[in-house]
RNA helicase
Amino acid sequence: MRLYRNHLQQKQEEKKKQKRYSAPWVDIDSEDDGRPRKTSVKINGTAINGHHKATSPSHNESGRATSDAPTATSSKHAAIQEQRLNLPITKGKDALIREFRENDVTVLLGETGSGKTTQVPQYLLESNLAGNDTIAVTQPRKVAATSLAARVAAEQGVKIGTLVGYSVRFDERCGSDTRIKYMTDGMIVRELMSDPLLSKYSVVIVDEAHERSLRTDLLISNLKVIQRQRNGNGTGENNYSKAKGKEKEKATNPLKIIIMSATLDAEKFAKFFSGAKVIYVQGRQHPVTIYHSLQSQTDYVDSAMRTFFQIHTDQPPGDVLIFLPGQEDIEGLEKSVELFAKQLPQACMEVLICTMYASQAPGQNAKVFNATPPNTRKCILATNIAETSITIPGVKYVIDTGKCKEKRYLARNTGGGFDTLMTRDITKSSAMQRAGRAGREGAGFCFRLYTEDAFKAMKPSAEPEILRCGLASSLLQLKCIDQDLESLDLMDEPDRDSLISALKTLFLLGAINQKKELTPLGREMAAFPLEPVYSRAVVASKELGCTSEVLIIVSVLSASSKLFTDSSEHRDAISESRRKFRHSSGDHLTILNVYKAYQDITKSESKSGRKAWCKKHFLNERALLEAGEIREQLVGTCQRAGIDPKAEGGEGKEEEVIKSLAHGLVANTAFLQPDGSYKQVMGQSVVKIHPSSTLSERKTPTIMYDELVYTNQIYARGVTSINKGFLAGLGALSQRQA
DNA sequence: GGTTCCTAG
């Protein structure tokens, strides 16, 4: 395939002639016949099913299903049923049911669009394989859980929260009659703490297991143990009738496990469950023609731009999705595409640029879903958010830079104790997932800004999260159910250093003792859905009488969206506006000021007034709303734990708030050195206050911080000035010698 | 002078 290069670009490229690629792309996928592939269900390599009628894809698994209200008219219901029958998985229904009946553990390998996530729970229910208990279907993301539940409820013709329901943080739609329950993996891991055998569920379906989130991994390990306890010492044979005959206590109802994975790792799951059956279900995806660049492109932002204009000037209509590692590159590319688009000849289609990344305001993100205006091509610049979380309609072309950013925890005893955030090459499965985004609605094209050899050299799939992140929080949760990261049978064992780091953190906080045993304080802390450093602060605030303030601060810090919006464009206006909320002690009390100011506004202003106020002060209202929900939840936890959530230090008691936080952040402290940098109290690292902090550029003698992140340097984020004498009182200094 | 993506009765 040859790509047209226009005059404008040629001028631009003359300087970089040596970098140019003459015949830019190599076709590695010739399966471009414009027809959806035939579908089949294979069991252990054997296809047990034949051809499928070619139809347009009726719905996707990530589910844009909420519009199908359960009050559907009969014709609407009929339409839904027909869509159901046309799913690739439908022809394999009987074979699947047979397999589920015969096996306690099944690994279901299903491509996107196969319908496995919506159909399998219904098959189990309809064939009475779940007995009278509930079928749990876990998801790594909240949106997926809620929208899938809505879709399946519509298919069953019931209202959500009756036969079909969901359970995610802050939102539960379940009743006593709920038999199919979609939930986040975090939710079921929390349930383990009160019901270690998960006795409510007769089937647990772990979806998106290939993503290997920390919570999914912990769930899978626990399921293996639970199944052994509930089914007797099962050796792969069906223990259903055996267990039933015993009529022991209620918890002995048998458990079936279904692991659903998109690709590749299926054998690993099967092996983990001592040779469980693997079933393969093909999906429905339109063909995507993939092109690789002939030479590796070092300046991926620039070559993404050139590739976009090649498509734009040469290819038929269809939107373009460009994958970039982060906000900075997105903003940069946005500017240059804008600039070039203005100089296009009259005959060209217009270019509409949409940007999409998690920290962008929701309204801005939502713009990609607007219909593309006539004679216009959408150019969507996105991070990984468009890879799995969100499906954008209308995309026919994908440009893949092959880069992403990855967070990785560096253990304390290897000179770390902080997260690194680096741009790195993506994995094979990620590259395939990105390419697939071009084939959702019809045949598509993917342009990779890296060579075929570079693709071949990529790692097959991402490292599981358990090898990449801090473990203190999970370890504390496990300790509460008498388990341990060391003794638990895990698919991948975490790093020794990472484990020691987590133990050290919990010991410093007083959550475990020298014998690694859970302390009463640790149990108190574990009740809070917070990082241990923050639950420690909440517990400390009880004595210091300022729980109300600490809950606010900790809630804002735990929210997934950032409180302050950031854009290189209005940098000065932003810092000017922030001065109003600034507290001289640092970021934590500044957060408190912002939250209180917002609370005041809420009393007098309408919804739109609040929104305008946030916009004016460059605040992210979503963060404030989310913090409000978290705070409410924490108030409930406090009440159950016998902590008065309304206890307020009030005016003049700011010191108490800082002290409470310091109980949690003891290990996150540093001293000013003569050269203006900071040195960790515990650890050897030299750190710098992040430029976004109110304390950056100030010479504060002693600081505590929420976290360290290594990007270009080691930055401390969320910084507050702290009294050195008080720090010594917490034992932080003596720990240093130990 | 600068931040991928998720998530917790």
